[in-house]
Known about the structure:
Strand order of the largest sheet: 2-1-3-4
Oligomer: single chain
Structural class: mainly alpha
Radius of gyration: 24 Å
Distance between the termini: 36 Å
Number of domains: 3
Order of helices and strands: HHHHHHHHHHHHHHHHHHEEHHHEHE
Number of helices: 22
Shape: globular
Amino acid sequence: MMFSFSAQYSDAENGYKLVSALFLRALAVIYCIAFFTLTFQISGLAGEQGILPLAQWIEKALQTMGWQAFVFHPMLFWFGSNDWLLQAATWLGCGLSLLLFLNIWPRAVLIALFVLYLSLVTAGGTFMNFQWDGLLLEAGFLAIFLRPDSRVLIFLMRWLLFRLRFMSGISKIVMGDPAWTGFTALLFYFETQPLPHVGSWYFHNLPQWLLIAATVLVLIIEIVVPFMMFMSRRYRFFAAWVTIIMQLLIIASSNHNWFNLLTLALCLFLFDDKALRRVVPAAAERWLTMTWHDRLQHRQQPWSVLASYLLASVIVGTGLFSIHRMVTRQSLGVWPDQLVDVLQQWHIVNAFHVFPTMTTQLIELKIEGSNDGIHWKRYRFKYRPDALDQRPQIVLPHHPRLDWMMWFVPFHPRFLDWFDDFLLSLLQGRPPVLALLADNPFPDAPPNRLRVRAYHYRFTTPQQRELSGHWWQRQDLGIFKPMPGMYLPPEYLPAATQPGQ
């Protein structure tokens, strides 16, 4: 089955044939990135010898939840969860992404991509519950129904972008974090974000007055500008360009994998074909909008129009329920809450809240092993801050999930369970887990004891870097004591955890 990018839909804005075709190609690339970065991580995270083996989780879920486990934890791995199947799912996702990019059976491929990635997100547990995973699934789900001649589906794409931006902004106000209400958040963000890169150092050392002004601007862009997405063409274009510029600045200052790329792709729906033709060559447009079967070029049938309105009512209604719960922190009743919970578990409608509270310190945990309690060797992560003269790495669009999750551990005891399992994996010398690290300091046999030291990392100033050549300075905080509130306020909850980020 193929999409019909027919030219029969036309309005004052010249339709969305090119917009839809370009978005699907962008979605294909992002899906491929998301699947590919899992090919060499999934076994160490959820495989048979991974940190959180999926087979053990399945057994526990069936014992405690019974048949409800199938509803609240949708995936294909219920009756088979070995490493081969997990790896096959990631590589199959890469192959299907290529088919989508080539416009081969796109609707069927989109269904398969959604099911595969939803299964991996469920299987990966805390390592796969980041906001961008939910955003990719929600965008991918809507793309299954996408038609360039459907105003309803174009609206739903804008509604998704609106919720992403507005909920991210309003959550900062609702949480009452002093860094946001006092307009000082960006004085800390670039230094204390989960995985800074070299651009973060330069942004962090901008004048304080500029960072304070930028904090105010961020709140305006996230809370006010999204409403322009539903206004006339001129205002939509303004909202699009403001959002695009902000996403490019985030890419220049942060390692947020493909999150910002997907946000940029969603901005396409704020434009129209007439606007895109100014930058897309005619030959490229012909290739992007090509159809494989002319017989499928037809107008929407009445039943499909009705179905699109039913879909919109569920998604918009659930999204409004989710916004209400975030803003008021109150329930709307049993069935609205259940509807929101189920659809969020299936990632059809998600709650977004990017950095609603701002941490003011970057705490790095260093794991050391020993066989005699005297001589200790350190395990090193691939991308986390380490040597003081080591330039912070740019790793986007890759998403190193273990490195990201290590950022959360000092913040709240809810993250200690998986961390304990990780330490146990090191004591047992599990090869898939060790492969997630930069090196193995115990190549012959694992150590018989571990300890964890905590360090407070800070960026150097330009003057300090000129003298020392260091990007970082750090303070040894001693042995890590996993107590709530030791390093950060106990009410802090990481920026987008469900329960990962």
